[in-house]
UniProtKB/TrEMBL annotation:
Coiled coil: none annotated. It holds the Pfam family DoxX_2. It is found in: Membrane. Signal peptide: none annotated. This is DoxX family protein.
Length: 152
């Protein structure tokens, strides 16, 4: 008597996801996605958040023009830095991508309303890979909710 059994899959992952990730194509996709996350995290941490957090004159001037002053500049800088770090933490990746996308919507609106659309394309371009990360890493949202449920 011969019995055929399916390979064991983690309880939280659908069988199709595990099978796809086992292929060479799935591995390449995961590596590319992770590389994209690292690249975006570096972008948000260094050329975006850092000038705000060190009060670089160019950042300070922009926030003064907005009327938000240094407090607004530091808050946006901290949000960008937190999002950059969270993009690298598996359970927070999807939420970080969504939060940074929301920040980019705000940046787009500010670029159009205050700065005459000079750099309005930049936030829109950044939303595309952030949306991809949010969608691809959406499975981690359930893990995050489970973690938060344990603490409540």
């Amino acid at each position: 008597m011969s019995e055929t059994t399916a390979p064991a899959t983690p309880a939280s992952a659908p069988a199709g996801v595990v099978a796809e990730s086992a292929t060479a194509r799935g591995r390449r996709a995961r590596i590319a996605l992770r590389g994209l996350q690292v690249l975006l995290a570096l972008f948000y941490a260094i050329p975006s958040a850092l000038p705000k957090l060190i009060a670089h004159p160019s950042a300070a001037e922009s926030f003064e023009k907005l009327g938000w002053g240094s407090a607004g500049m530091y808050i946006i800088g901290v949000l960008e830095l937190a999002g950059a770090v969270a993009l690298l933490i598996p359970v927070l990746q999807s939420v970080a991508a969504i939060a940074l996308s929301a920040l980019m919507v705000g940046a787009f609106i500010v670029q159009i309303a205050v700065f005459d659309g000079q750099y309005a394309a930049t936030p829109l371009i950044l939303i595309v890979p952030l949306a991809l990360i949010a969608w691809a890493r959406r499975g981690h949202n359930a893990d995050l909710l489970r973690l938060l449920g344990r603490r409540a």
